[in-house]
Amino acid sequence: MHTVAILGTGKMGELVLAGLLRSGWPADRLLITARRPERGAALTAKYGVPVVGNAEAVERADILAIGVKPQDAATLLDEIGAKVPADKLVVSLCAGLPTGFFAARLPEGTPVIRVMTNTPALVDQAMTAISAGPHATGEHLAIAEEMFKPLGVTLRVPESQQDAVTALSGSGPAYFYLLVEAMIDAGILLGLPRQVAHELIVQTAVGSAVMLRDSGEHPVKLREAVTSPAGTTISAIRELENHGVRAALLSALEAARDRAREIASQAV
Ligand SMILES: NC(=O)C1=CN([C@@H]2O[C@H](COP(=O)(O)OP(=O)(O)OC[C@H]3O[C@@H](n4cnc5c(N)ncnc54)[C@H](OP(=O)(O)O)[C@@H]3O)[C@@H](O)[C@H]2O)C=CC1
Ligand SMILES: O=C(O)[C@@H]1CCC=N1
C-alpha cells in the first residue's frame, strides 16, 4: 500500500484526507503538512494523521499530493523540488498549473499527474478529472484513480482539457450554490418563511440532480416535461432568457477557463 502525503492541507487537502480515511486508507499510510502549526495540530487531533514538515513528507511518502494554492506552489517546489527522488509520484490538485510547471522544478523523470476534483468530495460525490503529465504511466493514473474513486466519480482527460474541466466541475459547485441561494431569496420575495424556502429548493436541487444522473435523459427533455403549455414554468423561463442567463453561463465558464490560463501564465 502506498503512503500518501498531502503537502498543504487546506480545504481541498482536508477533503481528500477525510475521503481517503473514510475509504479505509490506513492512517499510518497518510501524512499531512501545514504552513501554520495550529492548523497542523487541529488536523492531527481530528484525523489522527501525523503532521510533518514538507521535507519529511517527501522522504516518507510515495505519493506527494500538492494541495497548496497555485500561487504558493513555486515556493513549495523551491523548498522540496530538488529533494524529491524521481521514483515518487507527484499529484497536483492545483487549478491552472500545468504538469510542466512541476516537472521543471523536479528531478528529471519524476512522474506528475494533474487532478481536478471538487468539494462534493465531502459526501463522496466528487467529480475528479485526472491527466497524465510527464513520465506518468497507466500505472500512475491507476494509482491516482485508486485515491480519488472512493471520493466520487473519476474521469481520465487529456491535460489540454484541464482548464475547461476546472471551469466546469472544479468551480461548478459554486455556480449551483449561487443558484440555490438566489432561488431561496426568491422564496422570501414570494412571502415564504426562509426555512420553508430553503427546504423546498434544496430538495428540488437534489431531486433534479439525482434524476438527471439516474434517468440518463437529456436535460432538455427533463425541462420540457416540467414546462406545460401556457403554464407557470414557461413564464419563468421567458424571464431567464430575457435576462440572458444562458449567455451569462457561457461567459462565466469562459472567464473561469481564462483565469486558469492566467494563473498558469503568472506562475511561470
Ligand atoms: N477549493 C476548491 O473548491 C478547489 C480547490 N482546488 C485547488 O486545490 C488547491 C487548494 O485549494 P484550497 O484547499 O481551496 O486552498 P486552501 O488555502 O484552503 O489550502 C491550501 C493550504 O496550503 C497551505 N500551504 C501553503 N503553502 C504551504 C507550504 N509551503 N507548506 C505547507 N502548507 C502550505 C495553506 O496554509 P495556510 O492555511 O497557512 O494558508 C493552506 O492551508 C488549490 O491549488 C486549488 O486550485 C481544486 C479544486 C477545487
Ligand atoms: O476557485 C478556484 O480557483 C478553485 C479551483 C476550482 C475551484 N476552486
TrEMBL record:
Chain ranges of the Pyrroline-5-carboxylate reductase catalytic N-terminal domain: 3-96
InterPro entries (UniProt xref): 6-PGluconate_DH-like_C_sf (IPR008927), NAD(P)-bd_dom_sf (IPR036291), P5C_Rdtase_cat_N (IPR028939), P5CR-like_CS (IPR053790), P5CR_dimer (IPR029036), Pyrroline-COOH_reductase (IPR000304)
Localization per Swiss-Prot or TrEMBL: Cytoplasm
Domain of life: Bacteria
EC number: 1.5.1.2
Main location: cytoplasm
Domain Pyrroline-5-carboxylate reductase dimerisation: 159-262
Keywords in alphabetical order: Amino-acid biosynthesis, Cytoplasm, NADP, Oxidoreductase, Proline biosynthesis
Pathway of action: Amino-acid biosynthesis; L-proline biosynthesis; L-proline from L-glutamate 5-semialdehyde: step 1/1
Pfam families, per the entry: F420_oxidored, P5CR_dimer
Oxidoreductase as UniProt keyword: yes
SUPFAM superfamilies: 6-phosphogluconate dehydrogenase C-terminal domain-like (SSF48179), NAD(P)-binding Rossmann-fold domains (SSF51735)
Catalyzed reactions per annotation: L-proline + NAD(+) = (S)-1-pyrroline-5-carboxylate + NADH + 2 H(+); L-proline + NADP(+) = (S)-1-pyrroline-5-carboxylate + NADPH + 2 H(+)
Purpose: Catalyzes the reduction of 1-pyrroline-5-carboxylate (PCA) to L-proline.
Family: Belongs to the pyrroline-5-carboxylate reductase family.
Protein name: Pyrroline-5-carboxylate reductase
Organism expressing this protein natively: Actinoplanes ianthinogenes
